[in-house]
Amino acid sequence: MEVLKMNKNLFLWIGIAVAMVFLFKSFSGADKQTSAEVGYTTFLEQVEKKQVVEAVIENGTGEIIYLLNSGKRQRTRIIGGYDSDLINDLRQHGVKAKAVAAEQEGGLMSVVFNVIIFAAIFMGIMFIMRRMQGGGGGGAGAGGMSKFSKSKAQYCPPGENTLRFSDVAGCDEAKFEVQELVEYMRNPEAYQDLGVNIPTGLLMLGPPGTGKTLLAKALAGEAQVPFFTLAGSDFVEMFVGVGASRMRDTFEMAKKVANEQNTGVIIFIDEIDAIGKKRSEGMQSNDEREGTLNAMLVEMDGFKNSNQIIVIGATNRADVLDPALLRPGRFTRKVTVGKPDVAGREKILELYGNKVPMSKDVDFKKIAQSTPGMTGAELENVINEAGTFAAREKRKEITMADLEAAVEKVFMGPERKSMLLSDAQRAETAMHEAGHCVAGYVLSTMGFHDAPYMVSIVPREQALGVTIFRNGEDNVSQNKGQLMAFALTLLAGRIGEWVHHNQDELKITTGASSDLERASSVIRAMIKDVGLSKELGPITAKSNAYGQSTASATLLSQVDKISKDWLDAADLIVRDFIMKHKKELCDMTELLMEKGTIRDADIKACLGHLDAEYQNVKFGDIFDIEARANQEKAKKSA
Q1: Beta partners for 470?
Q2: What's the pTM value of the predicted model, to 2 decimals?
Q3: Higher pLDDT, 417 or 2
Q4: Which is the catalytic residue, given 433, 497, 584, 626?
Q5: At what angle do helices 287-301 and 242-261 cross, to 10 degrees?
């Protein structure tokens, strides 16, 4: 209370002093402020007419403030700043004249005013700094320790952390790696007796949303130890030295809790790359960040066995971390928390789905198969979006249809219901998507492509239509036939438009530009990056991060030529295939025009008869792009 009272009095006196200076200055300059300014010739005319009683002339500035016989004050300025005849004219006309230095008119008060303003600003800054530092006994603790440099770590006592490994799914390997730390923190003597070094750090690597933070918190909850959590950005400040001070304070807090409770402590630093980037040697060094990193390295080196403190860092940019941070003895273990596979996605969906009312028709396995590449956070969002759809329809349970709609929304964005397309545009889009679907379906029967399970011509954020494919398992790697099938399916949409417009090339739209770009990229990568061209052989001409290739110009020219030949051959293959199955495209187009969106049951009804037709057909007999390119080349040579 005394400090608060003192601060209030300080600002009160500063305010009074500034107000008095302003008031005095305004009175001292009243003559100038209240006198009207006139031209110099007007002043001379007034002197000749004997209307001027007295005049005050400022030396240096040439400004004249004078009093008329009417009692009115006016001011003017001598042209050029000097008039040698002025004094004589004033004497002849009976004007009382007085010369003053420019500094005398409020000069001293200007100095005093500036000093007081500077002092007020300085005292204000000092007060703010004292408040930031907690000085003056204002609750910062003994010695006025800086609050500004205090750690921003959030503390979670063991009893409040109810998260367990059973609450984490989809990352079994990562969970296995960290489970051993639980045993260590519960029974460190068993490891120390065998001479096992205490793990001081665990680095979790992986894309955003894969559950790194969740896994770290579950580790603390399973071990029932105190848990400090903060982000790398909590150490980043404008003032040099603040980050390092916060880092030291974080470890001091952890050591204090470990000693008081005689237990292990976990410090979790999310986005550790904010402070752990490689230190530079040039002019672009960041002293504040590097000072923070150095403080962390020193603290991790200074651990004692009795402290039982484990630092867990999480990042999705392991490539930028400083080597000193990654060496054994600091972050001894590195755990990769990747995107879940189909089985992991199913477990995650069940984990979140069991917390909300679900209909009996829900099949999490099918949803998992239709969400390749999704992280745990995105799958949680799918469940949440499905709940939103159910709530809109006033239902008490989430249905399979809600989950499928939620997957589509997360993948492609919400439906653009306000976007009205003409029947001609809808038919064109339907034929485009039908081309993708028919090609993908036939290639899936041969085992070279995922099966289509949903086709829609309802406009969404990113496209006018979409075809989604689903497989029972994730493709870890792809063979040459699968890559060719992918390129052919992409081109089939464009050829579907070509068939719809009676083979008129002029009417193919820009809607196929993305498909063409991706198909070209896949074919070029097959030839240039992974050596799948028989003509070029097992050679690679990959480009580096800057787009530069070490391959010769001759080799790159060959890559361009072969890529063009393959793309032309793929186009011919798809044209022949789509023309052969024009009826299936038209049937599917009519169904899409009627329903807007069709799923696997409708797709099977339209295309199921093709299973028998292609049952004994080999992929290479029809769809081998390289073989077709060689055939076309032979025709041209003949």
Answers
A1: 451
A2: 0.70
A3: 417
A4: 433
A5: 20
